[in-house]
């Protein structure tokens, strides 16, 4: 099984990124091929300060490694270090029908809000398709919000294969039911663009503050509460065992527990889950040269595969001679 996924360096990673995607990257590393990349070309559609982008890219690599991505079992690289992907984007663009992109949510949402979208945002799903098809990926671990893009990828691969030779592999999305759409502090999908994220790595003080900001209803301490209607409990489920969840749920239902206590339980669970990764990250911060070496080595491995696939695609669409039949 060939696994691939990408994540944008648009700011610090949050719980949605981890539970929706990164934990899957780590679980799937060691597959026949597992490629994970920092989608810096995609980030250019939103991050326009070069120094901020550079910093975000480095932070992304540090976060992924600290969380357990192991360069001995997975290839970690920067998207822009494999220029073949932009060539494949163009080749796919020549067969992409406009209506396919017009229905994609990132573009549709901006248009609905009356915000002018540029061609980068409009064609974003084609670059994503190229990312996936570039490495013959079978499985793409993501959160629910990316599934539409993987469907577009399949459509494009099918169209390319039917117009030319069968040369592109059709991928499947892999989404975890339990964390397909992690909620943010306001109970909506956790997303940087909604300003409702809780970062993965922050100081205990700031983390506590973010957790305290999770919206709850106005029930008093004595009131009986419904855990299933509470964002604090929904998030707690991500961090806890079935028994821990049952215990906290019964305290909600019994009354006599304020939301502050539930928030404390969530804070403790967070520290237990990410404490060790936080320490690993601090250590990695002093070894940025090693981290750069990991990215360079990853790019080399990824490029070898990308060159093989781009040759196949070039010859399929007539840019190159067909390889001699064996
Ligand atoms: P990005 O950077 O927005 O998000 C990275 C990953 O985190 C997941 N995610 C979530 N999952 C559950 N709940 C949430 N609230 C939540 N927020 C984010 C996303 O689903 C994603 O898996 N276009 C991609 C990056 C990309 C890519 C690719 C992914 C570029 N090329 C090729 C896969 C394959 C994106 O913007 O993800």
Strand and helix map with partners:
Elements: E1 2-7, H1 15-28, E2 33-38, H2 40-43, H3 50-66, E3 75-78, H4 84-93, H5 98-102, H6 105-112, H7 119-122, H8 124-133, E4 139-141, H9 147-163, E5 172-174, H10 204-212, H11 231-239, H12 242-254, H13 259-285, H14 288-316
Parallel strand pairs: 1-2, 2-3, 4-5
Helix pairs in contact: 3-13, 4-8, 4-14, 8-9, 10-13, 11-13
Bound molecules: tryptophanyl-5'AMP.
Residues 5-8, 16-17, 20-21, 39, 42, 128, 131-132, 140, 142-143, 145-146, 179, 181-182, 189-191 line the site of tryptophanyl-5'AMP.
Structure commentary:
The protein has 326 residues and is mainly alpha-helical. The protein has two domains: 2-181 and 288-317, Rossmann fold (3-Layer(aba) Sandwich); 202-282, Orthogonal Bundle (Tyrosyl-Transfer RNA Synthetase). 54% of the residues lie in helices and 7% in strands. It has 14 helices and five strands. The strands form two sheets. The chain has a three-stranded parallel beta sheet with strand order 1-2-3. The chain has a two-stranded parallel ribbon with strand order 4-5. The chain is globular, with a radius of gyration of 22 Å. The two termini are 26 Å apart. The model has no long low-confidence stretch (mean pLDDT 95). Tryptophanyl-5'AMP (TYM) is lined by residues 5-8, 16-17, 20-21, 39, 42, 128, 131-132, 140, 142-143, 145-146, 179, 181-182, 189-191. The site of tryptophanyl-5'AMP has 24 residues, from strand 1, helix 1 and helix 8.
Elements, N to C (H/E): EHEHHEHHHHHEHEHHHHH
Return the CATH topology of the largest domain.
Rossmann fold
Task: Report strand %.
Answer: 5-15%
Low-confidence stretches: none
Q: How much helix is in the residues?
A: 40-55%
| Shape annotation | globular
How many structural units, i.e. domains? 2
In the CATH scheme, the class of the largest domain would be Alpha Beta
Report the structural category: mainly alpha
The assigned CATH architecture of the largest domain is 3-Layer(aba) Sandwich
Number of strands: 5
- The average pLDDT score comes to 95
How does the major sheet shape up?
A: 3 strands, parallel
With strands numbered from the N-terminus, the spatial order across the biggest sheet is 1-2-3
The CATH superfamily name of the largest domain is HUPs
Q: Looking at the chains present, what oligomeric state does this protein adopt? A: single chain
């Amino acid at each position: 099984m060939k696994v691939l996924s990408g994540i944008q360096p648009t700011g610090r990673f949050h719980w949605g990124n981890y539970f929706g995607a990164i934990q899957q990257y780590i679980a799937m590393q060691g597959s026949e091929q597992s490629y994970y990349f920092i989608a810096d070309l995609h980030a250019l559609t939103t991050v326009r300060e070069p120094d901020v982008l550079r910093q975000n890219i480095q932070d992304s690599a540090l976060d992924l490694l600290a969380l357990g991505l192991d360069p001995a079992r997975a290839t970690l690289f920067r998207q822009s270090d494999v220029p073949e992907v932009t060539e494949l984007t163009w080749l796919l663009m020549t067969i992409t029908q406009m209506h396919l992109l017009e229905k994609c949510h990132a573009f549709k949402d901006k248009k609905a809000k009356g915000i002018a979208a540029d061609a980068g945002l409009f064609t974003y799903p084609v670059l994503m398709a190229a990312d996936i098809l570039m490495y013959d990926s079978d499985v793409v671990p993501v959160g629910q919000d990316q599934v539409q893009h993987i469907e577009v990828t399949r459509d494009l691969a099918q169209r390319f294969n039917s117009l030319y030779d069968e040369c592109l592999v059709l991928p499947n999305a892999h989404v975890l039911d339990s964390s397909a759409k992690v909620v943010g502090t306001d109970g909506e999908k956790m997303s940087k663009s909604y300003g409702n994220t809780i970062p993965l790595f922050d100081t205990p003080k700031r983390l506590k503050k973010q957790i305290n900001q999770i919206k709850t209803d106005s029930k008093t301490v004595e009131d009986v509460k419904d855990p299933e209607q509470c964002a604090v409990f929904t998030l707690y489920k991500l961090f806890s065992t079935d028994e821990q969840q049952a215990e906290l749920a019964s305290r909600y239902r019994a009354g006599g527990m304020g939301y502050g206590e539930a928030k404390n339980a969530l804070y403790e669970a967070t520290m237990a889950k990410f404490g060790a990764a936080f320490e690993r990250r601090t250590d990695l911060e002093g070894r940025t040269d090693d981290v750069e070496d990991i990215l360079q080595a990853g790019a080399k491995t990824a490029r070898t595969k990308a060159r093989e696939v781009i040759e196949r695609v070039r010859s399929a669409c007539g840019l190159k001679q067909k390889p001699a039949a064996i």
